[in-house]
Each structure stands twice: as structure tokens, then as C-alpha cells.
Write a structure and sequence with these properties.
It is built from six helices and 30 strands. It is α+β, with helices and mostly antiparallel strands. The protein has three domains: 216 residues, Jelly Rolls (Sandwich); 109 residues, Ribonuclease Inhibitor (Leucine-rich repeat, LRR (right-handed beta-alpha superhelix)); 126 residues, Mannose-Binding Protein A, subunit A (Mannose-Binding Protein A, Chain A), CATH 3.10.100.10. The N terminus is likely disordered. 15% of the residues lie in helices and 29% in strands. The strands form six sheets. Strands 1, 3, 4, 6, 12, 13, 14 and 16 form an eight-stranded antiparallel β-sheet that branches. Strands 2, 5, 7, 8, 9, 10, 11 and 15 form an eight-stranded antiparallel β-sheet that branches.
Length: 521
């Protein structure tokens, strides 16, 4: 549950933001944690219409609009009459764009063309205009329609478009004629409005619409997520806007501390700077951040982590790389990890975990299939893997005309067991090579991609007796000189050098890829 108490900032926000009071002048606050209630204390509660849903957001929960029927209506009140000075702050994540643009939030209920000659004064809206590269230009408009005329003005940007399927934090300020725009806590642009703000007036029937325009036109519906929406009757300062943007860093700090505590951080091999003062998280050992001080990588492999992975890891919304192999992690990988949409690299091998990322993907797919019968299991897996960005597009298989089999080189570093699980969960198997022709095909097809990969041979059951994981007959081998040799202990798994085609037994040092095989499409 989100909170609006200023004390939260003192716990988590870097020092230069501590003086900002994000509650001063707050007239409406919608955290969207399961409903559209106003948490500012002013009772400006939203009314739900159409298809909406409350889902995982950038700060706890968020509201999802379907782009067709869903919107929130907030009935007008005296506290919302902020026509000379006002500010808006919110997070958005567009899912798709409309050719006619979309309106995110508006107080633009009527205008001269609607037959009302003087009922649109003091209106405003936040919207997205669109471009063909699936990026959106954000804009903020104010308007005055005295005596049937049409006078409005906007501020926007094409220099920092809002990307599809990515969270962006927006702040807009209207201060006695000046329009100011901020994106992700940073000043972008400002202008002096041509609207005569001194004559603006507000009418009690101008409701606020979230996710839709005033006239209920589906052409302008917003398709995406909105989180942490705040309306103010004052001009927010640069420090206050920075505080609002960095609130999500508080959740990241909390997640990092959870990871430390749940994996016995006091006994890590290296825990330099961990649990330091707020604002120091990017200096903690193994933590890397982007230019906005958002955690983008956690590299704590072979660092004596002993314990479980906390569910709160899902709050690391900008995480791209999570390398935790070579530790003593136990329990299960939380399925919430699949909610991290930016995650590109994951390693958990050489731990004592009861599941794998692939089994989580399969579980997620099965859950989705229980909701619909319109897609097949393979297509569901492909869609989920590609959309999440975790895995290679498995539709890009290579066909061997000699044996009529398909192959896919997956460039992910995993243990042999994880690679085996991966291939089996996508209806294939870790490749078996039963002839010199097949061996040559693999080398000729994949040698340009990468140096080596796992294949399905192993001698787990009987040391020295090699067999294929799919039960093919072991009637061909291409060992390097002196192999197999258990050089580093009990090496039970088979790796192929894609440059030479020769084989080697291995265990401790996984290759950078593995090869899946299918008997047919």
C-alpha cells in the first residue's frame, strides 16, 4: 500500500530531496491500489466506467485502461477549482498508440462547439500525440473559451518522446500564465501561454476524466497504465518534482535490503557499502545504476548468498541484469520476477533452487492458457518469451534437411540441467548428435554465432557410459584428444566446440549457450 506521509521521504530519498513536502497543496491523490479512491483526504473519489483493471505498477499497484471503454470520472468539487495555479504529477505506461492521439487526464468537459457558449473556461488536459515509430509526444493544454471563442495553448515536446511499454513520470505546472513540463524528474521546457489566464473562470460541472476525453469519444481513449496520479493547487518546485520521481527509488532500496536480509548479507564474501545511508545504493557492491539512479544490474554471483530470493525483487522495475549463480540460494525463484519487464540477463545455476526461470515461464503460460483456448502452447510460450525480453525468439529455428529436424541455439548461460529443462518446456530436447553429418550441420550453421554450447549427452547414471537425454542411441562421438577426462572432478555433461565440432565433458564452467532440437516443427 502506498502512503502519502512525508516521513517516507526521510527514510529513502537522497539528501537533496529531503526538504520537499509533496503533500503541501495536494487536492487529489490516486495511488490506484485496487480502487480509484482519493487518498488526499479531500474525498475527490473516482467513479469507474467500462473495462479497467488494477495491476502491478511502478509504485505498488496501478490502473490499466483498455483503450476502448475504460475510464475514471471524478465529479467536480471546490478543491479541484485550480485555474490560475496548478500542478499535475503522474506515471504512465502506454501500451499502444492511437492515430488520433489519446487523452490521459482532462478537465475539459465542454466547449463552444458543443453548444455551450461559456462553459469551458479554465479547462486543461494532458494528452499524447503519436508518430509512426510508436513513440508518443506528450503535451499539456490549457484553454479559455469566453463568449463562444476558442482560445487554447499547449506545451509539449518531440525531443523526449514517451516510449511504448515503458514507465515515464510526467509533471506539469501552470503558474499564472507559464506552462512548464518535466519528464522523469527533469526539466524539459516551458513557455508563456497565449491564454489570458486573468479571465479564466471555473464551472462546477467540469468533471475530471482519467483515461478518456470529456465527450466520451472512444477515439481518444488511453490504452495503458497510470500510477500515482497527484493534483495540486500550487506550482510544484524542482525539488518537489524530483522527490515525486525518486519515490520509486524508495521501493528499490527496500527491495535491496530485503535481498540482503533474506540471503544472510552479513556473511557475504563482499558486502561493501551495503545498508549505507539513503542515496548510496548505487555504490553498494554488485549494484549498478542508470543515469536516474535506478538499479539496472545486480551482480552478486559467487558471493556466498545463503537463503531465499525475496518476492519484493519485483519492485526493481528497471533491472536489466540479475546474476546470482554460484551461491547457496534455496527455496524457489519467485514468479513475481517475471513482472520485471526490462530484465534481459538472468543466471541462477550452481544454487540449490527448486525451480528454474523456464519452469516459471511454463507456469505463467499454463495460467494464461487456462483463461483462453484461442492460442496453442507453443505460440503462448513464444509470445511470452519475446514480450518479456528474457529469451531468444524460438520461432527462428534452423532446419536440417538430412534428418528433417529443427534446431535453435539459445544464447543464455545456464547450467546443463537448466538448459535441459528449458528445451523440454518448449516441447523439444537438448540436442543429440548421432552422425558426422549432423555434427557438421551444427558446426556450419552455428559456428558464426558463438564459441561453444551444451548438447544433450551425459553420463549421470553410469560414470563413463554416455547417453543422450532423449534416449537416442549412442552410436557416434567426436571427442577432442584426451576427452572425456573429468579434468575438474566429475564432469557429467557434454559440450561441443562450435569452431572445431569436437566434444568435451564439462560441469563447473557452463558455455555461453545451449542447443535445442525438435523432431518436427
Amino acid at each position: 500500500m502506498k502512503t502519502i506521509y512525508t516521513i517516507l521521504l526521510f527514510l529513502f530519498i537522497p539528501l537533496n530531496y529531503l526538504l520537499a513536502d509533496i503533500n503541501d497543496g495536494l487536492v487529489a491523490y490516486y495511488p490506484f491500489d485496487g480502487n480509484a479512491s482519493d487518498k488526499s483526504g479531500n474525498e475527490n473519489n473516482g467513479i469507474e466506467h467500462g473495462e479497467i483493471e488494477y495491476v502491478e505498477g511502478i509504485i505498488d499497484r496501478a490502473i490499466f485502461f483498455d483503450g476502448a471503454t475504460g475510464y475514471i470520472q471524478v465529479q467536480d468539487s471546490d478543491t479541484l477549482d485550480t485555474d490560475h495555479v496548478m500542478s499535475i504529477s503522474l506515471w504512465i505506461k502506454p501500451i499502444s498508440y492511437s492515430n488520433s492521439g489519446s487523452k490521459i487526464i482532462s478537465k475539459w468537459y465542454s466547449a463552444p462547439w458543443s453548444g455551450c457558449s461559456n462553459c469551458g473556461n479554465g479547462d486543461w488536459l494532458v494528452g499524447l500525440s503519436t508518430s509512426e515509430n510508436e513513440q508518443n509526444d506528450i503535451y499539456f493544454s490549457v484553454a479559455n473559451f469566453p463568449e463562444g471563442s476558442d482560445l487554447s495553448d499547449s506545451i509539449g515536446t518531440t525531443s523526449k518522446p514517451i516510449s511504448i511499454n515503458r514507465w515515464s513520470q510526467l509533471s506539469f505546472v501552470f503558474d499564472n500564465g507559464k506552462l512548464i513540463l518535466y519528464i522523469n524528474g527533469e526539466y524539459v521546457t516551458e513557455k508563456i501561454s497565449t491564454v489570458d489566464y486573468t479571465s479564466l473562470s471555473e464551472y462546477t460541472y467540469d468533471d475530471i476524466f482519467i483515461g478518456q476525453f470529456w465527450n466520451h469519444s472512444n477515439n481518444y481513449n488511453f490504452h495503458g497504465l497510470i500510477d500515482d496520479l497527484r493534483l495540486y493547487n500550487k506550482s510544484l518546485t524542482t525539488n518537489e518534482i524530483s522527490s515525486l520521481y525518486h519515490m520509486h527509488n524508495a521501493y528499490e532500496r527496500e527491495s535491496l535490503i530485503d535481498l540482503y536480509n533474506s540471503t544472510n548479507g552479513n556473511n557475504w564474501s563482499n558486502n561493501t557499502f551495503w545498508l549505507g545511508e539513503p542515496g548510496t545504493e548505487c555504490t553498494w557492491f554488485g549494484v549498478n545504476c542508470d543515469e536516474s539512479n535506478c538499479v539496472k544490474a545486480i551482480h552478486l554471483f559467487s558471493n556466498n548468498l545463503n537463503g531465499t530470493i525475496p518476492n519484493s525483487i519485483k519492485n526493481l522495475k528497471h533491472l536489466q541484469s540479475l546474476l546470482l549463480h554460484g551461491n547457496n540460494l534455496n527455496g524457489s525463484i519467485p514468479i513475481e520476477i517475471l513482472q520485471i519487464e526490462t530484465l534481459e540477463s538472468i543466471t541462477f545455476y550452481d544454487n540449490n533452487l527448486s525451480n528454474t526461470i523456464i519452469s516459471l515461464v511454463n507456469q505463467k503460460v499454463q495460467d494464461e492458457l487456462n483463461k483462453t483456448d484461442k492460442i496453442g502452447i507453443k505460440d503462448a510460450i513464444y509470445a511470452l518469451q519475446i514480450a518479456s525480453g528474457h529469451f531468444t525468439d524460438l520461432k527462428n529455428k534452423k532446419y536440417n534437411a538430412q534428418n528433417k529436424h529443427y534446431y535453435q541455439l539459445v544464447e543464455e548461460k545456464m547450467s546443463w540441467e537448466e538448459a535441459l529443462d528449458y528445451c523440454q518446456n518448449i516441447s523439444g530436447y537438448l540436442a543429440s548428435i548421432t552422425s558426422s553429418e549432423e555434427n557438421d550441420f551444427i558446426v556450419n550453421t552455428f559456428s558464426k554465432n558463438i564459441s561453444s554450447c551444451w548438447i544433450g549427452g551425459n553420463d549421470i547414471l553410469n560414470e563413463g557410459v554416455w547417453e543422450w537425454c532423449n534416449n537416442d542411441e549412442w552410436n557416434f562421438s567426436n571427442w577432442s584428444n584426451g576427452e572425456p577426462n573429468n579434468a575438474l572432478g566429475k564432469e557429467d555433461f557434454l559440450m561441443i566446440n562450435l569452431s572445431t565440432g569436437q566434444w568435451n565433458d564439462e560441469r563447473l564452467y557452463p558455455p555461453p549457450s545451449f542447443l535445442c532440437e525438435w523432431d518436427d516443427k
